[in-house]
Amino acid sequence: MPVVLREARATLVPDMAGPHGPLPPVMLALTVVTGLVDAFSYLLLGHVFVANMTGNVIFMGFAFAGASGFSLLASVVALVSFAAGALLGGRAVHRVRAHRGRQLQHALLVETAFVTAAMIVAFVSGQPYTGAVRFTLIALLALGLGVQNAAARALAVPDLKTTVLTLTITGIVADSRLAKGRGSRIGRRGLAAVAMLAGAYAGALAVLNGSPRLPLVLAVAVLAAASTAATLLARDDAPWTRPPVTA
């Protein structure tokens, strides 16, 4: 079997006795969530991201320069809410730092609550999402994704950070044999890019075809499944549940 396929298979169907156990496929699922919610926020809430904060910093620069279509306030709300979510997520995972399964469970339950609240707001509010509704949606989603990022940082599964792809794509090229590196790990890293692409594609397709709330429904469904899995994993006591050596 080619190396790429072996890496992909080991990510999708990991060795439960390995250092990260069942965490890789869960991280991929959360990467799909990132694509879904950012498609919703960018296409329906103005030019703003709720998961990828690098984009919001750049959008703030555009807004300061007077470029049309960019809201400084929306970017600030997203950044502040994301930071607050990261704080909540940090507190949630550090309370159970000795067990990665419980870290995942606690963080996902909080994230799912925020994204579900956003979905409810989207359903009870009329479109287009403007004014207070718009900023409420931005805040709730950014809070949830801040929690997710804090959890991903604590769990420290290599190449699966759920939102950041710049370093992942850099690694594919810079670590490749062509660059005299030790190996691109494209089977694993490529899956992360595909997962985010799939989430963004599904979210955008739904919005552009008249189902604007569907991205949030799908995100909540994925999070509910991941939370259920995390609740079961929280009972495990396998080696992967212990904190990574390089967290």
From TrEMBL:
Residues that span the membrane, as ranges: 26-45, 57-88, 108-126, 132-151, 190-208, 214-234
Q: Does the UniProt entry include the keyword Oxidoreductase?
A: no
InterPro entries of this UniProt entry?
A: DUF1275
Keywords on record: Membrane, Transmembrane, Transmembrane helix
State the source organism's domain of life.
Bacteria
Q: Which PANTHER family match?
A: SLR0142 PROTEIN, UPF0700 TRANSMEMBRANE PROTEIN YOAK
Its protein name is Uncharacterized membrane protein YoaK (UPF0700 family)
Species annotation: Streptomyces clavifer
Taxonomically, what lineage is the organism?
A: Bacteria, Bacillati, Actinomycetota, Actinomycetes, Kitasatosporales
